[in-house]
Automatic annotation (TrEMBL):
Keywords of this entry: Carbohydrate metabolism, Fucose metabolism, Glycosyltransferase, Membrane, Transferase, Transmembrane, Transmembrane helix
Gene3D superfamilies: 3.40.50.11350
Superkingdom, taxonomy of origin: Eukaryota
Positions of transmembrane segments: 6-25
Protein's name in the database: O-fucosyltransferase family protein
Molecular function GO terms recorded: glycosyltransferase activity
BP GO terms, sorted: fucose metabolic process
UniProt key word Membrane: yes
InterPro entries assigned to the protein according to its UniProt record, in alphabetical order: FucosylTrfase_pln (IPR024709), GDP-Fuc_O-FucTrfase (IPR019378)
Pfam families given in the database record: O-FucT
Family note: Belongs to the glycosyltransferase GT106 family.
Organism of derivation: Sesamum latifolium
Length: 413
């Protein structure tokens, strides 16, 4: 009995989505949030920011925007093959940046043509065009000379003559040579499905030959399309307006009730660390490290949930997307059949807030951290249960910053 390759691909995409969600919840907890005295001293010495003038609380000024230190590799026309690499973006922008990087690295190694991906949600038939969310012209221009890019899959290529290949996040040349190249040479065209053995973004101990390509793809290709960018900007402006007493500064907290309710978010991990913190725990954490009652807090939960009352009791200026998005934009960006726009909005607000607090460990935290490091917004505070009545915010700075161990530090100088 013949098997329709489209059914096989749909099954792989669905299975991969659940595996990635499981990884995000269960496998990668926060690193220890109680550093040694030496680590705390290093955090204070190496933080680029200084205390913001005229603001109550542990606010820091942004550091300098870092400059890319990778060189854009140029692909010779003679090296280009006739084959195509196709793929889809899934599960939100924190996954998109990694999926883009892997696809570009693979296409570059194979000298293949990269087909601009579509964007797929968690439900069957939930599909958008790349240009609905991202700036397609920016994407093509940024990869000019690196890989050949086409806007759509050629009509002569169908699901039946596409070999589906699973690719681990942060794929290496060795893996491509051993597991992908032969399939590509045989079939001529492949479809990539990225899976995530780990959701951390720590840099490699030694630089690799693909670092410059991965850096460009991860940090230089994706920007929201104009309307999405305008919505993000209007929401940030609103948050700054209601934050007058703190010089327009606000805290963004990645706190989603649906994730918190997952089984993997309850209790402690084997190492004593937690993978998730609830609204009341976040409220106590922010209060104990010195944030004032008047602090403006943005949470990634889309609509108000009764559990957020515990956070609002401590910080009355706590907002969701629903409460600060322009009314005329809500039908398109909040009330659509998919949550894709909501995820993208959260990603960029958390990347551009004055302070970022990841209440949930996982790839969202890791890839938001990368964007923040590149732009000098290094005040990322990893929550913990503080036994005493107070603590300094420096004790809870992200290890990605204090140890400079994020992949972004391989990309920016």
């Amino acid at each position: 009995m013949a098997v329709d390759p489209r059914h096989v691909l749909a099954g792989i995409l669905t299975l991969t989505m659940f595996l990635m969600l499981g990884d995000m919840i269960k496998r990668d907890h926060f690193d220890s949030t109680h550093p040694t005295v030496h680590d705390t001293k290093k955090a204070s010495e190496h933080t680029l920011a200084s205390v913001a003038k005229g603001a109550d609380g542990p606010w820091k000024e942004d550091g300098l925007t870092l400059k890319p230190c990778w060189q854009k590799p140029v692909l010779k026309e003679a090296d280009e093959s006739q084959g195509y690499v196709t793929f889809s973006l899934t599960n939100g922008p924190e996954y998109h940046v990694s999926q883009i990087a892997d696809a570009v690295v693979v296409a570059r190694y194979l000298r293949a043509t990269l087909v601009i991906p579509d964007i797929r949600g968690s439900q069957p038939g939930d599909k958008r065009n790349f240009k609905d969310v991202y700036d397609v012209e920016k994407f093509i221009a940024s990869l000019d000379g690196v890989v050949k890019v086409v806007r759509s899959q050629p009509t002569e290529i169908s699901a039946r003559n596409l070999a589906v290949v699973k690719v681990p996040n942060r794929v290496t040349e060795g893996y491509i040579a051993e597991n992908i190249e032969t399939v590509f040479r045989t079939k001529g065209n492949i479809r990539l499905v990225t899976y995530f053995p780990s959701v951390n973004m720590k840099k490699n101990k030694e630089k690799t030959s693909t670092d410059s390509i991965a850096c460009l793809a991860m940090f230089g290709t994706l920007e929201p399309q104009t309307e999405v960018r305008e919505v993000v900007d209007s929401m940030i402006d609103r948050l700054k307006t209601v934050s007058r007493k703190s010089n327009g500064q606000f805290v963004a907290v990645d706190l989603r009730i649906d994730i918190l309710e997952k089984k993997g978010c309850h209790g402690n991990g084997g190492s004593g660390s937690k993978s998730c913190y609830g609204p009341q725990e976040i409220a106590l954490f922010l209060k104990k490290i010195g944030f004032e009652k008047d602090t403006t807090v943005y949470v990634t939960q889309t609509k108000w949930h009764s559990s957020l009352d515990a956070l609002k009791d401590f910080f009355p200026k706590t907002y969701t997307k629903e409460s600060i998005m322009p009314m005329e934009k809500k039908d398109k960006f909040l009330n659509s059949d998919t949550s894709e726009f909501e995820k993208v909005i959260d990603y960029y607000i958390c990347s551009e807030s004055d302070v970022f607090v990841p209440a949930i460990s996982g790839l969202f935290y890791a890839n938001v951290a990368g964007k923040r490091i590149a732009s000098g917004r290094t005040q990322m505070l990893v929550p913990a249960t503080i036994p005493g009545s107070s603590a300094t915010s420096e004790e809870f700075m992200s290890h990605y910053v204090t140890k400079k161990n994020h992949f972004a530090y391989s990309c920016f100088c």
